Amino acid sequence: MEINATLLGQLITFAILVWFTMKYVWPPITKAMQEREKLIAAGLEAAERSKRELEQAQHKAISIIQDAKRDASLVVDAAHKRSLQMIEEAKESAREEGNRLIAHAKDEIGREVNQAKTILRKQLSQLAVLGAEKIIKHNLDASMQKTLLDEFVAEL
């Protein structure tokens, strides 16, 4: 194989091209690749961190929901107990009011009965006096009549 000037020129040109590429072209390319590698690594790390934060946020949300449900059930239970207590208080109040009205009605009836008895006694005593007057026909004086009438009312 003969090495001629063309082959030697191509070999020298190729060597200069390799040297030029390694000196001026290759470092920016490797630098860009390293930066890209760092950027991808940072993106993957941020994705993993975001994934962990998402899982933590989901667990926290579940915990908050469970706490809210527990608090809501406590509030509902307290409201139910309070409503039962209010119903019992209303029943007791109604019983007391009913008993008070019954006692008032009994007192009113007692007063009316006593008033009716008094009226009947007076009417009866007047009738008795009228009957006695007709029988006696002016034999007794007014003070004696009053005394007899008072005794009669007391006996009734």
Give the secondary structure arrangement, pairings included.
Layout: H1 5-136, H2 142-155
Helix pairs in contact: 1-2
| Content-based structural category | mainly alpha
Taken as a percent bin, the fraction of beta residues is: under 5%
Tally of strands: 0
Shape: rod-shaped
- What percent of the residues sit in helical stretches (DSSP H or I)? over 70%
User: Oligomer, anyone?
Assistant: single chain
User: How far apart are the termini?
Assistant: 168 Å
- Helix tally equals 2
Order of helices and strands: HH
**Radius of gyration over all CA atoms, rounded:** 60 Å
Mean pLDDT: 87
List keywords for this structure.
156 residues; 2 helices; mainly alpha
Concise account of the structure shown:
This protein has helices at about 5-135, 140-155. The protein is mainly α. The chain is rod-shaped, with a radius of gyration of 60 Å.
Written description of the protein model:
With 156 residues, this protein is an all-alpha fold. It has one domain. The protein has two helices and no strands. Helix 1 crosses helix 2 (142-155). It starts with a helix and ends with a helix.
